[in-house]
Amino acid sequence: MSPAQHRHVPDHLSATLSALADPNRRAILARLAQGPAPVGSLAAPLGLSLPATSKHLTVLERAGLVSRHRRAQWRDCRLEAAPLRELAGWLQTYRRFWDDSMERLHAYLEQLQSQPDPAAGDQKHPGR
Amino acid sequence: MSPAQHRHVPDHLSATLSALADPNRRAILARLAQGPAPVGSLAAPLGLSLPATSKHLTVLERAGLVSRHRRAQWRDCRLEAAPLRELAGWLQTYRRFWDDSMERLHAYLEQLQSQPDPAAGDQKHPGR
DNA sequence: CCTATATTTAACCTATTAGTTATTTAACCT
DNA sequence: AGGTTAAATAACTAATAGGTTAAATATAGG
């Protein structure tokens, strides 16, 4: 058989998360959180070359996390938070797993079901 | 010169984010959010092979997002939320950028400084 | 118009990722 | 012991990611 075509258009969340997965890119965002900045001033403190920085910015831009605007010969980069909000929304659905009070509630609700969760397949003998 | 050694031990947050960046892995977490499950029952509904699933689980495990426990010949996977909490904490520092009321406060605080943010270098002529 | 400055783009390299198939390991059940 | 089921590991592959150096592009300014 042909060696598997596993190519997708990545969704928003995946783009956001993989953009954020790089520490240099998070450092760029941290810097931009204190106000817009041109590319060069982002590169220097991170010990990154200009081309590397530019690429990181492209990744961040494609994830919607920054926008760039020409301003004379510079290009001002600005933090765009919408994807972060989206991420926070996604994360929210897991909040009960680390929030103690919610965790207790959840445990209670699970216990209410009495059954070991029929939808989950975590019985003694899980369905094949 | 040798072609640049950019090898790091990735930090927690990077490991968490890159683990979460894959939609299949997020689907696994979503499934585990409804209770622990053996590997096979995770693979099937995602159309993933067992080896692929096992690898995803290894990635999630190394990020601390799941744990696996032998249970007869099965291996029960359980969601571990600590890294998600850590992520939520990190995200929290950006909350003011999407939360309207906070945003207004932030704008006000920035305006208090009167100066266009000396630490930021976003003046007319940014430092080299 | 020419030159300096700021940034992007191109071409290339290496490591990592996500998948594959085939083989092992582990535990259960006669 | 032998067979079956569950999962992991090995070996391989194609695509992606993050970096490099060198060349191109865009704007400002004498």
Offer a few descriptive terms.
mainly alpha, 128 residues, DNA-binding, elongated, 3-stranded antiparallel β-sheet, 3 strands, homodimer, Arc Repressor Mutant, subunit A
Strand order of the largest sheet of chain A: 1-3-2
Helix and strand content put the structural class of chain A at mainly alpha
Order of helices and strands of chain A: HHEHHEEHH
Number of strands of chain A: 3
Question: What share of residues of chain A is helical?
Answer: 40-55%
- The CATH homologous superfamily name of the largest domain in chain A equals Winged helix-like DNA-binding domain superfamily/Winged helix DNA-binding domain
Terminal residue distance of chain A: 25 Å
Mean pLDDT of chain A: 83
Reading off the top of the CATH hierarchy, the class of the largest domain in chain A is best stated as: Mainly Alpha
CATH architecture classification of the largest domain in chain A: Orthogonal Bundle
Strand content of chain A: 5-15%
When the domains of chain A are counted, the total is: 2
Question: What's the alpha carbon Rg of chain A, rounded to whole Å?
Answer: 22 Å
Main sheet overview of chain A: 3 strands, antiparallel
Largest interface: A-B, 48 and 47 residues
Multimerization state: homodimer
Helical stretch tally of chain A? 6
For this structure, the CATH topology of the largest domain in chain A is Arc Repressor Mutant, subunit A
